[in-house]
């Protein structure tokens, strides 16, 4: 069994990347159960830190992430899921959660 | 000033993506100072959780990440850096830290 380095809350960060466009769509967190569900079901599942529950992404909106490939990093403490989104990934309606650019002015007091 | 949601350790996860190939290269963690250094210097800087110090990626290897764009997500708790790597990003010599594929067998006891 792969020895994933879960953090102190039993979670690992999981990057979602669009299998067609290559865009980074979102960063979520998975616990053991959601990672297993992701691999078994072919849909991305997360642990919702705000709601403290398993989260089947798209269950409400229909915007599932269809998993094409799951990868893990050299330290086994981060996951990369390459997936096809069935609609906008972001709850704002944007395709990607990373729709805003940070400028130097954003870091000024 | 952008109200970044730092975690309880004062860190935010930062995804590095190759500006040319679109590959996801690594996931690192930034504190306020390393994010400022990243934006000001044009090189990716991190907080090394293992060494507990500021980490100028590439300072030892020469494999700097030249920053093209910094983005942040809808919840302002994750960063995406689009960058050109000056060499392999992973300490193993691989281009990306995500060089291994997870299979269902990896999750079996």
Compact overview of the structure:
The first copy, chain A, has one helix and seven strands, in the order ββαβββββ.
Layout of helices and strands:
The structure is a homodimer of 109-residue chains.
Chain A: E1 12-18, E2 24-30, H1 32-41, E3 45-48, E4 53-56, E5 65-72, E6 79-85, E7 100-101
Parallel strand pairs in A: 1-6
Antiparallel strand pairs in A: 1-2, 3-4, 5-6
Structure write-up:
The first copy, chain A, has one helix spanning 32-41, and strands at residues 12-18, 24-30, 45-48, 53-56, 65-72, 79-85, 100-101. The first copy, chain A, is mainly beta. The first copy, chain A, has a 4-stranded mixed beta sheet with strand order 2-1-6-5, covered by helices on one side. A two-stranded antiparallel ribbon of chain A has the order 3-4. The longest helix of chain A has 10 residues, at 32-41. The model of chain A has no long low-confidence stretch (mean pLDDT 97). Chain A binds chain B through residues 1-2, 13, 15, 17, 22-24, 26-27, 35-36, 39-40, 69-75, 78-80, 90-92, 94, 97-102, 104, 106-109, and chain B through 1-2, 13, 15, 17, 22-24, 26-27, 35-36, 39-40, 69-75, 78-80, 90-92, 94, 97-102, 104, 106-109. Strand 7 of chain A pairs antiparallel with strand 5 (65-72) of chain B.
């Amino acid at each position: 069994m792969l020895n994933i380095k879960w953090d102190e809350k039993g979670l690992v960060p999981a990057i979602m990347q669009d299998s067609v466009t290559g865009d980074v769509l979102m960063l979520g967190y998975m616990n053991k159960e959601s990672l297993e569900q992701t691999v078994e079901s072919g849909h991305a599942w997360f642990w919702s830190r705000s709601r403290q529950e398993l989260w089947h992404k798209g269950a409400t909106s229909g915007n599932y992430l269809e998993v094409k490939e799951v990868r893990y990093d050299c330290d086994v403490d981060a996951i990369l899921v390459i997936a096809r989104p069935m609609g906008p990934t972001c709850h704002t309606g944007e395709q990607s959660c990373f729709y805003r650019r940070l400028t130097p002015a954003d870091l000024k007091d």
